[in-house]
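pasting for ref
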Amino acid sequence: MSVLICVLAYLIGSLGFGIIYSRFRGEDIRQKDAPGGSGVYRQYGLTAAILVSVLDILKGVLAVGLAQQFAPEVAWLAAGLVVLGHNFPVFFRFDGGGGIAPLLGALLVHAPQTLLVALGLTAVAIPVYKFVLQKHVKFNVLPAISVMVLPVVLVYAYLQQSGFLALLAIVVAMALRIPFSLKP
Protein backbone atom coordinates (compact mmCIF):
# COMPACT_ATOMS: atom_id res chain seq x y z
CA MET A 1 0.00 0.00 0.00
CA SER A 2 2.88 2.40 0.78
CA VAL A 3 4.27 2.23 -2.75
CA LEU A 4 0.83 2.81 -4.25
CA ILE A 5 0.29 5.86 -2.04
CA CYS A 6 3.70 7.27 -3.01
CA VAL A 7 3.00 6.81 -6.73
CA LEU A 8 -0.46 8.33 -6.28
CA ALA A 9 1.00 11.34 -4.43
CA TYR A 10 3.39 11.99 -7.31
CA LEU A 11 0.62 11.61 -9.91
CA ILE A 12 -1.69 13.95 -7.97
CA GLY A 13 1.14 16.48 -7.86
CA SER A 14 1.59 16.08 -11.62
CA LEU A 15 -1.83 17.61 -12.26
CA GLY A 16 -0.57 21.09 -13.12
CA PHE A 17 -3.73 23.15 -12.81
CA GLY A 18 -2.10 26.31 -14.17
CA ILE A 19 -1.08 24.38 -17.28
CA ILE A 20 -4.49 22.74 -17.55
CA TYR A 21 -6.23 26.10 -17.19
CA SER A 22 -4.05 27.72 -19.84
CA ARG A 23 -4.68 24.82 -22.22
CA PHE A 24 -8.43 25.34 -21.82
CA ARG A 25 -7.68 28.89 -22.95
CA GLY A 26 -5.86 27.53 -26.01
CA GLU A 27 -2.36 28.34 -24.74
CA ASP A 28 0.46 26.89 -22.69
CA ILE A 29 1.28 29.32 -19.91
CA ARG A 30 4.82 27.95 -19.69
CA GLN A 31 5.59 29.72 -22.98
CA LYS A 32 4.98 33.10 -21.28
CA ASP A 33 5.13 32.69 -17.52
CA ALA A 34 5.28 30.35 -14.54
CA PRO A 35 2.37 27.89 -14.28
CA GLY A 36 1.55 28.64 -10.64
CA GLY A 37 -0.84 31.09 -9.07
CA SER A 38 1.33 34.18 -9.63
CA GLY A 39 1.92 33.41 -13.31
CA VAL A 40 -1.77 32.65 -13.83
CA TYR A 41 -2.60 35.96 -12.11
CA ARG A 42 -0.31 37.89 -14.45
CA GLN A 43 -1.68 36.15 -17.55
CA TYR A 44 -5.38 35.54 -16.77
CA GLY A 45 -6.38 37.60 -13.73
CA LEU A 46 -7.35 37.19 -10.10
CA THR A 47 -10.23 34.72 -10.45
CA ALA A 48 -8.14 32.27 -12.48
CA ALA A 49 -5.21 32.66 -10.05
CA ILE A 50 -7.40 31.92 -7.04
CA LEU A 51 -8.89 28.86 -8.76
CA VAL A 52 -5.48 27.48 -9.75
CA SER A 53 -3.95 28.22 -6.35
CA VAL A 54 -6.78 26.54 -4.45
CA LEU A 55 -6.62 23.47 -6.69
CA ASP A 56 -2.83 23.26 -6.30
CA ILE A 57 -3.14 23.57 -2.50
CA LEU A 58 -5.79 20.85 -2.52
CA LYS A 59 -3.33 18.54 -4.31
CA GLY A 60 -1.13 18.65 -1.23
CA VAL A 61 -4.12 18.18 1.07
CA LEU A 62 -5.36 15.18 -0.92
CA ALA A 63 -2.00 13.44 -1.30
CA VAL A 64 -1.04 13.72 2.37
CA GLY A 65 -4.60 13.03 3.55
CA LEU A 66 -4.70 9.80 1.56
CA ALA A 67 -1.30 8.83 2.91
CA GLN A 68 -2.34 9.50 6.50
CA GLN A 69 -5.48 7.44 5.98
CA PHE A 70 -4.00 4.40 4.21
CA ALA A 71 -0.23 4.43 4.83
CA PRO A 72 0.64 6.87 7.63
CA GLU A 73 4.25 5.69 7.70
CA VAL A 74 4.84 7.38 4.33
CA ALA A 75 2.78 10.55 4.84
CA TRP A 76 6.02 12.54 5.12
CA LEU A 77 7.20 11.10 1.81
CA ALA A 78 3.84 11.79 0.15
CA ALA A 79 4.34 15.46 1.09
CA GLY A 80 7.62 15.54 -0.78
CA LEU A 81 6.29 13.53 -3.72
CA VAL A 82 3.25 15.74 -4.32
CA VAL A 83 5.61 18.73 -4.53
CA LEU A 84 8.00 16.76 -6.75
CA GLY A 85 5.08 15.91 -9.06
CA HIS A 86 4.07 19.57 -9.19
CA ASN A 87 7.64 20.59 -10.05
CA PHE A 88 8.26 17.76 -12.52
CA PRO A 89 4.82 16.67 -13.77
CA VAL A 90 4.84 13.44 -15.74
CA PHE A 91 1.78 14.65 -17.68
CA PHE A 92 3.53 17.83 -18.90
CA ARG A 93 7.02 16.73 -19.96
CA PHE A 94 8.41 17.22 -16.43
CA ASP A 95 8.16 21.02 -16.75
CA GLY A 96 6.09 22.37 -13.86
CA GLY A 97 5.93 24.99 -11.17
CA GLY A 98 7.83 25.88 -8.04
CA GLY A 99 5.82 23.86 -5.54
CA ILE A 100 4.67 26.46 -3.03
CA ALA A 101 0.92 25.76 -3.26
CA PRO A 102 1.18 21.96 -2.81
CA LEU A 103 3.68 22.60 0.00
CA LEU A 104 1.03 24.66 1.77
CA GLY A 105 -1.58 21.92 1.34
CA ALA A 106 0.76 19.12 2.42
CA LEU A 107 1.87 20.93 5.57
CA LEU A 108 -1.67 22.04 6.34
CA VAL A 109 -2.59 18.38 6.78
CA HIS A 110 0.69 16.89 7.99
CA ALA A 111 2.10 19.60 10.25
CA PRO A 112 -0.25 22.56 10.63
CA GLN A 113 1.65 24.08 13.56
CA THR A 114 4.89 24.04 11.55
CA LEU A 115 3.04 25.67 8.66
CA LEU A 116 1.76 28.40 11.00
CA VAL A 117 5.27 29.06 12.29
CA ALA A 118 6.60 29.24 8.72
CA LEU A 119 3.82 31.60 7.61
CA GLY A 120 4.26 33.78 10.70
CA LEU A 121 8.00 34.08 10.24
CA THR A 122 7.53 34.78 6.54
CA ALA A 123 4.95 37.48 7.27
CA VAL A 124 7.46 39.21 9.54
CA ALA A 125 10.54 38.61 7.38
CA ILE A 126 9.17 39.83 4.03
CA PRO A 127 8.55 43.46 5.04
CA VAL A 128 11.80 43.59 7.01
CA TYR A 129 13.71 42.25 4.03
CA LYS A 130 11.96 44.47 1.46
CA PHE A 131 12.36 47.69 3.41
CA VAL A 132 15.71 47.15 5.13
CA LEU A 133 17.86 44.55 3.38
CA GLN A 134 16.77 44.23 -0.26
CA LYS A 135 18.44 47.43 -1.44
CA HIS A 136 21.75 46.15 -0.03
CA VAL A 137 21.49 42.42 -0.74
CA LYS A 138 19.61 42.70 -4.05
CA PHE A 139 18.11 39.18 -4.07
CA ASN A 140 14.52 38.48 -5.02
CA VAL A 141 12.22 38.20 -2.03
CA LEU A 142 11.42 34.46 -2.04
CA PRO A 143 14.97 33.10 -2.22
CA ALA A 144 16.15 35.54 0.42
CA ILE A 145 13.23 34.80 2.74
CA SER A 146 13.75 31.06 2.24
CA VAL A 147 17.36 31.39 3.36
CA MET A 148 16.25 33.38 6.40
CA VAL A 149 13.16 31.42 7.46
CA LEU A 150 13.82 27.83 6.41
CA PRO A 151 16.57 27.00 8.93
CA VAL A 152 14.43 28.28 11.79
CA VAL A 153 11.39 26.33 10.62
CA LEU A 154 13.44 23.14 10.18
CA VAL A 155 14.81 23.46 13.72
CA TYR A 156 11.29 24.12 15.04
CA ALA A 157 9.87 21.10 13.19
CA TYR A 158 12.68 18.89 14.48
CA LEU A 159 12.42 20.01 18.10
CA GLN A 160 8.62 19.87 18.15
CA GLN A 161 8.53 16.60 16.18
CA SER A 162 6.07 18.31 13.87
CA GLY A 163 6.61 17.45 10.24
CA PHE A 164 10.41 17.54 10.12
CA LEU A 165 10.72 14.68 7.61
CA ALA A 166 7.87 16.06 5.49
CA LEU A 167 9.48 19.49 5.44
CA LEU A 168 12.84 17.97 4.57
CA ALA A 169 11.29 15.95 1.71
CA ILE A 170 9.56 19.09 0.41
CA VAL A 171 12.78 21.13 0.59
CA VAL A 172 14.61 18.46 -1.41
CA ALA A 173 11.81 18.38 -4.02
CA MET A 174 11.91 22.16 -4.34
CA ALA A 175 15.71 22.31 -4.41
CA LEU A 176 15.77 19.88 -7.32
CA ARG A 177 13.83 22.50 -9.29
CA ILE A 178 16.43 25.25 -8.82
CA PRO A 179 18.78 24.32 -11.69
CA PHE A 180 15.82 24.13 -14.09
CA SER A 181 14.50 27.55 -13.09
CA LEU A 182 17.77 29.28 -13.91
CA LYS A 183 16.97 29.56 -17.61
CA PRO A 184 18.70 32.42 -19.45
